[in-house]
Amino acid sequence: MSVPSEMSNPQLFQQLALLGWLRSGSEQDKDILTALTGIQVAQELMDRLTGQREVDAFKTECIRCIADFVQSNPRATQDQINAEVKKHVLVFAARVKALDSAPLL
Q1: Origin, by domain of life (predicted)?
Q2: How is the chain split into domains, by residue range?
Q3: What are the pLDDT digits (tens) for 64-75?
């Protein structure tokens, strides 16, 4: 996961293309900037339409909760661990399923 103030790779590439175009004003640099911006917009739309960003966040939270349980309960039996895993996987699945009824944008 990136630091909030840090640019993502696509943002960095877009800024580099913008800088190149601003410095040169060439049609080729403008085309590169246009293509990179189009790719970034398309990726954002796909993430929003598929809910992939939220699914990834839910998955990370599920894994973190299970890891926290195991770390906090070093003497937990396998049955206790299995129950905790099942509980968090069911929460994960319910949250992902809820995305189906959420508005797209």
Answers
A1: Eukaryota
A2: 9-50, 52-99
A3: 999 999 999 999
